[in-house]
Input
Amino acid sequence: MNKACVFFLSAFLVFLIAHEGLAAPQIATYEGLLRAIRETRAASQARVEAAAEQEKVRETWETGKLIDEHILVNKERAQYGERVLQRLSFDLGMSKRELHYMVEFARTYPIVPTSAQLSWGHYRDLLAINDPKERKEIEDFAEDRKLPLAELRKEIKKRRVATTKELEVELTEITPGPLYTYQLTRLKDRLKIDLGFGVYHGLPEKEAKEFKEGDIVTVDKKGNLKKAEETELFTYSAVVTQVVDGDTFHALIDLGFEVVLAQRVRLRRINAPEIISADGQAAKALLEKILFRDQGRIILRSRDLDQHGRPIADVWVRGESIDQELLDKGLAVTANE
Output
């Protein structure tokens, strides 16, 4: 046997010994095979999610670092930092508050953290702790015990850490306007009923003589238009059909006059983490739970579009605004701040 063959066989034996633990187990039954494949897929998905979480932490840190260095270059310009954050908020479709957190994250951690257990949401809340020693202690505590974000918040509260920031944000109380109340507008010399979402309903000529442009109207039990007092417009009943992520969903919106609109809607007052992250998936799961408490039936008010042209809305389920619950669970931040 020549030297080449000996070398090849030796290398092959080393490979087999080194990889003995990777040999596929012998599975005798189909049920066992199916179970093993499902376990493999679940383990793979868990690894993908963990990797995505760590990449989100790195992306957030690098974003904060870029912004901070840019602001430092322009530090002589008065209020430049706030102005650039406002512009980035619009151009990136992110809340100004979240961008502030990213900058502070990069300032607080000179080197990007690499914990396999802590998400961006964890670090965002840890920023509320001013004392570096105290912060590191709680950080290690959360990492060792693999604390979910909600449990980390409880731990921070329990320790009553002195801070200049608020972990909890109380949103202003809001209430929906009356259902199916509209304003009349004039299009091509004809009065139309503005249903919102760029939808207009024609006004019979007989009724048009009784109203003028700008009038607020509603519909009585007989289906007739009547004048109404000045109020919040574009409030409708709707049925949720799909939740996209922690702040976006699809719904069938009843605009009245037998007009039903299928629409993708974004929550107006909060931003949730990206769906690829574990926090983003938790936010989506919570939003689904909230929106389907009444079998998907909601009250929705939408008056504006976001920078991508999507309707943004306030939403109530069983008379309760839904935003605060997502904030309280640490699965969203306030938008437009």
Q: What stands out?
A: The chain is about 40% helix and 25% strand. The chain has four domains: 30-114, 116-167, 181-227, 235-334. The first helix runs from residue 3 to 18. The CA atoms of residues 135 and 294 lie 41 Å apart.
